[in-house]
Specification:
By secondary structure, this protein is of the alpha+beta class. Helix content is about 65%, strand content about 15%. The strands form two sheets. A four-stranded antiparallel sheet has the order 2-3-5-6, with no helix packed on it. Strands 1-4 form a two-stranded parallel sheet.
Length: about 500
């Protein structure tokens, strides 16, 4: 007996240890240690230059939100397996051991046949099996719907990756833009420092007014403020990029460099019509909605199965032993063994339940029609995304070219105005205007180039380009059910 309890304790210990979960990291140091032990991160230890494509790859492997989608897919697969399990028989066993004591010591005027004391001990075991034979195709339709739900989860996972890659690209380009604005501010600071130095000499010599000298000091502080703001935006953008990439402390490695804006620009090589057709064919959210329509259709027809009878086959086998000890006017003992078995078929048919079945079918029918309209609306949104991205790219390219031309002119103009100012021919206001025109052109060019990059990233995301996932487990590999599913899909398809 002692050995028995030792074995049970060992099994329980193994079960508890197998269910033990890794502790959650709560401090920054614990987070860093946890990620340092992850081999996924060591693959990127040697990276010195971060490209948009590499940033997307790191995010794909380490973003927690995207990683979580895999478990959602696995959960959907298990629900599908549960639906498939409805085809198997249900087998249950029962074991009983017990004792029943009846004591009648205080009976007044007992009958001669009354037994004052009875002690009954019984032990028994039974096995029952039941098998659903027919339920109006509810099982089959539920399996089809569950399979569609599983496919939906896979498509949604792919769509999460699509959106994640777009977000990473946008965050990457925000870092580039902020860095470019910081560089423009630095160039402005150098210009203002040069002007202030020369203005100080001329003010001390009495050649310019104090108001002009103060104006250069004001402009220098304005340029420094712009630089601080740009640096702040760059750091915030780097934090956002690091978070999307899944870096444990929300920071990019200090020595990690990004590529210049000019190297990040990609040009759509094909016509708009091509991208529209590609989006309609490849978008995972559209694929998910097609599967959702199938699932809604299967559930709609499953609602009709509630009107059919439910037929089950069953079989039972059992054994029971009883022993009685009786003490009355004498003492006696008896025992006997019982063996039983049985089998049969049952049919249950719900005739009326207050129109609940009918209204449930009507509900499922409306949900099916709703899913079709939602799909049509999503198609319109997809087309709008592609057209918008394509238009923004083309207009941003035109604007960038205009800013390039403008920059050449305003730079030359600014230099001429500087000469004219120091010659005393123009006011400081004219000089400020020329410098501001140059800063505006430089900033406008940077913004338009980044808009080109973002529009291209949006276009790639809109057509689900450059998205590759490891193949998911295919539930259709259960060969026993494949042909039946195909026949049912033909029967209940559009």
């Amino acid at each position: 007996m002692k050995r028995y309890w030792i074995v049970l304790g060992a099994i329980a210990g193994l079960l508890v240890s197998g269910c033990r979960e890794a502790p959650l990291a709560e401090t920054l140091e614990e987070i860093r240690e946890q990620y340092a032990a992850d081999p996924e991160w060591r693959a990127f230890d040697g990276v010195t230059t971060l490209t948009p494509a590499l940033a997307q790859k790191i995010a794909e492997r380490n973003n927690p939100d995207f990683e979580a989608t895999l478990y959602a897919v696995n959960a959907a697969r298990m629900r599908y397996y549960q639906a498939v399990g409805a085809y198997s028989p249900e087998i249950s066993g029962r074991f009983e051991i017990g004792q029943n004591i009846l004591d009648r010591d205080h009976i007044v005027n007992p009958l001669p046949t009354t037994v004052p004391y009875t002690n009954r001990f019984n032990v028994g075991a039974s096995l029952r099996a039941s098998w659903l034979l027919f339920d109006g195709l509810a099982r089959e339709l539920n399996v089809l719907a569950s399979r569609a739900d599983y496919r939906i989860s896979g498509s949604r996972r792919e769509n999460v990756l699509r959106v994640l890659k777009r977000s990473v690209a946008f965050a990457y380009y925000d870092v580039l833009l902020a860095g470019e604005m910081e560089a423009i501010a630095e160039s402005d600071i150098q210009f203002q420092e040069s002007c202030l130095q020369q203005a100080s000499v001329r003010f001390n010599s009495g050649f310019i007014a104090k108001g002009d000298w103060l104006g250069f000091k004001i402009d220098l502080n304005r340029a420094r403020t712009m630089q601080v703001q740009a640096r702040q935006q760059r750091e915030v953008a780097r934090y956002a990029l690091a978070a999307l990439m899944g870096y444990p402390d929300g920071r990019l490695p200090p020595g990690l460099k990004l590529i210049p804006i000019a190297d990040a620009i990609r040009k759509p090589e094909l016509e708009l019509e091509f991208y529209l057709n590609e989006a309609l064919a490849r978008r995972p959210d559209l694929r998910a909605m097609r599967e959702a329509i199938d699932a809604a259709r299967y559930r709609k027809y499953a609602g009709l199965s509630a009107f059919s009878p439910v037929v089950n086959a069953y079989g039972t086998v059992g054994y029971q032993r009883k022993e009685d000890w009786m003490r009355g006017y004498d003492f006696s003992r008896s025992s006997w063994d019982n063996y039983n078995y049985g089998y049969g078929i049952t049919a249950d048919w719900l005739i009326f339940n207050g129109l609940q079945r009918y209204n449930r079918y009507r509900e499922l029918r409306e949900l099916y029609e709703e899913s079709r309209l939602q799909f049509a609306q999503t198609q319109l949104q997809v087309l709008n995304e592609v057209e918008t991205a394509y238009t923004i790219y083309r207009s941003s390219a035109e604007i960038a070219e205009l800013y390039r031309q403008t920059m050449d002119w305003v730079f030359e103009q600014r230099n001429l105005v500087v000469v004219e100012y120091w010659a005393g021919n123009v006011t400081i206001t004219r000089l400020r205007g020329a410098q501001n025109d140059l800063i505006s052109a430089e900033g406008g060019l940077a913004v338009s180039l980044i808009e080109m990059c973002k529009a291209n990233a949006q276009l790639i995301a809109a057509v689900n380009g450059e998205v590759e996932l490891a193949p998911l487990h295919n539930p259709e590999t259960i060969p026993v059910l494949d042909k039946m599913f195909d026949r049912l899909e033909e029967k209940f398809g559009e």
